[in-house]
């Protein structure tokens, strides 16, 4: 099948859906979603979306909190832009049907999370992402200019490379003509030509064995962009969420939102001792990188597989009202959060780097934009401030949409693009080759490229990844493609970028913490 469309959107989270709704007033849109449309990282976002709504909060406070969390590597101009545009984008989400929690007086009930100096987190109970996706998908499915392809898998971006031209990462004239997409109904690879393409494919938590990300988060957009020779940056900064529910064997790991600590929950070690104040005066409300390393340190010191989150001192009725999904989930495995400690462990959560974009979401490839977790805008620096991710995604979706509408009428379809050729390929039925290699990859990343790193561990990971890469590329070149093989290939590519950039950074800063470059005030046992 061969299709033409004005705007091609790859990904159906908050960034992709918001962008689609913005540009659909000006042309036709196709959204490619690799699973059912709502199965995205957005859906799993519990805490909420950060924005300055009322005094005594201010833009300046939100900006400074973001810069502090980012450990000096944020782009301050970008931070100021995103924070100042937040209220307008929140208003747009509300207009599109999102229902944020209100107080009795009709004002928004604002939560507080680690690293924030004021209450500024808009939320819908502890299922904010689900509510946002519900509202946006309802609008998308009822828009006459939007076609939603669920279960379709993006294989590769189409550039001059597919016309037989030689391009490199130093080329300045690379153009995106669309995307090759695996059709789940025909098992064939379709060609979708587009004037403008937006990558909104989310993160890559599944390079790790334990992650809060859904199984669809395999770094597809970042890997495709890198293969197309787009610029990618800051991949060493992987944020581990401090508190996922310790429930071995469950995938994805169930998130225990940071808002719970903002509500007053306390972290305790296996002896029941509250430990955060010995690591940071902000205790449970320190930025995520600090809380995560503190938990990791306690676990190593005590030889334990998890720590605990204690809510027993909090008002039980308010606890259930504020966190109904967490209460129900814990109760389903025999934990009553009103009376029992919650076992928690850090889990891979968010990539702060990604495809390099400018203020309008443009990548280094013409006619290709990126927004959301797959992009690197300069907003997050070395460590993302809690609940800034949904905010950045919706701000950049809007800005990318505005720029796309201005430019798409000057872009023509490239009719010379060939259809996918799999002549001579064989149907590979040995799934064990893929599943075993995926497990091996995740174990390598968990063991050597996790919360605390060293040059020795990183080099070992790099060498192991080289072997896996060669084996998988050989399989890829011979096989009729399927989603599992392509996902594995993308996971390997993203893992390589994480390790490569981690080796290049000769310091410990933010989420990149190396025992070879310990900061002066580091705890000796970390």
How would you portray this structure in words?
The protein is an alpha/beta fold. Helix content is 34%, strand content 15%. The protein has three domains: 2-237 and 352-410, FAD/NAD(P)-binding domain; 245-348, Succinate dehydrogenase/fumarate reductase flavoprotein, catalytic domain (Flavocytochrome C3, Chain A, domain 1, Alpha-Beta Complex); 431-504, Fumarate reductase/succinate dehydrogenase flavoprotein-like, C-terminal domain (Methane Monooxygenase Hydroxylase, Chain G, domain 1, Up-down Bundle), CATH 1.20.58.100. The strands form four sheets. Strands 1, 2, 5, 6, 7, 8 and 15 form a seven-stranded mixed β-sheet that branches. A four-stranded antiparallel β-sheet has the order 10-13-12-11, covered by helices on one side. The protein has a three-stranded mixed β-sheet with strand order 9-14-16, with helices on one face. Strand 1 (2-10), helix 1 (14-23) and strand 2 form a beta-alpha-beta unit. The radius of gyration is 22 Å and the shape is globular. The relative contact order is 0.17.
């Amino acid at each position: 099948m061969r299709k033409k469309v004005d705007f091609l959107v790859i990904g159906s989270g908050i960034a992709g859906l918001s962008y689609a709704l913005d540009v659909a007033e000006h042309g036709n849109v196709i959204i490619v979603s690799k699973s059912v449309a709502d199965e995205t990282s957005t859906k799993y976002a519990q805490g909420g979306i950060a924005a300055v709504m009322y005094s005594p909060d201010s833009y300046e406070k939100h900006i400074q909190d973001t810069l502090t969390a980012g450990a000096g590597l944020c782009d301050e101009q970008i931070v100021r832009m995103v924070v100042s545009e937040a209220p307008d984008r929140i208003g747009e989400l509300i207009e599109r049907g999102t229902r944020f929690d209100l107080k009795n007086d009709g004002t928004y009930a604002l939560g507080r999370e680690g690293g924030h100096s004021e209450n500024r987190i808009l939320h819908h109970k502890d299922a904010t992402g689900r509510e946002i996706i519900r509202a946006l998908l309802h609008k998308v499915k009822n828009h006459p200019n939007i076609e939603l392809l669920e279960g379709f898998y993006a294989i590769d971006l189409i550039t001059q490379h597919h016309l037989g031209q030689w391009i490199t990462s130093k080329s300045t004239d690379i153009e995106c003509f669309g995307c090759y997409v695996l059709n789940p109904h025909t098992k064939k690879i379709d060609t979708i030509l587009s004037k403008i393409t937006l990558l909104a494919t989310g993160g890559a938590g599944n390079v790790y064995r334990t992650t809060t990300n859904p199984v669809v988060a395999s770094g597809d957009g970042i890997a495709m962009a890198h293969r197309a020779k787009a610029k990618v940056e800051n991949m060493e900064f992987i944020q581990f969420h401090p508190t996922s529910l310790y429930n071995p064997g469950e995938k994805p790991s169930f998130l225990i939102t940071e808002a719970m600590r903002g509500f007053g929950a306390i972290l305790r070690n296996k002896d029941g001792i509250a430990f955060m104040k010995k690591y940071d005066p902000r205790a449970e409300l320190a930025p995520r990188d600090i809380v995560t390393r503190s938990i990791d340190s306690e676990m190593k010191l005590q030889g334990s597989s998890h720590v605990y989150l204690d809510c027993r001192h909090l008002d039980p009725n308010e606890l259930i009202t504020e966190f109904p999904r967490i209460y129900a989930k814990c109760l389903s495995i025999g934990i009553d959060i009103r009376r029992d400690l919650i076992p928690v462990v850090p889990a891979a959560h968010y990539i702060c780097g990604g495809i390099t974009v400018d203020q309008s979401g443009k990548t280094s490839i013409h006619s290709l934009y990126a927004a959301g977790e797959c992009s690197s805008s300069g907003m997050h620096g070395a460590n993302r401030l809690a609940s800034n991710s949904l905010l950045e995604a919706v701000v950049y979706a809007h800005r990318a949409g505005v720029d796309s509408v201005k430019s798409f009428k000057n872009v023509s379809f490239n009719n010379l693009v060939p259809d996918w050729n799999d002549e001579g390929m064989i149907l590979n039925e040995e799934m064990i080759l893929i599943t075993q290699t995926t497990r091996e990859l995740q174990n390598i990343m968990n063991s050597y490229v996790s919360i605390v790193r060293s040059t020795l561990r990183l080099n070992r990971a790099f060498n192991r990844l080289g072997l896996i890469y060669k084996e998988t590329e050989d399989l890829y070149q011979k096989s009729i493609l399927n989603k599992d093989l392509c996902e594995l290939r993308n996971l390997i590519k993203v893992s390589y970028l994480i390790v490569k950039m981690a080796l290049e950074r000769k310091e410990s800063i933010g989420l990149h913490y190396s025992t070879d470059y310990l900061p002066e005030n580091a705890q000796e046992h970390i």
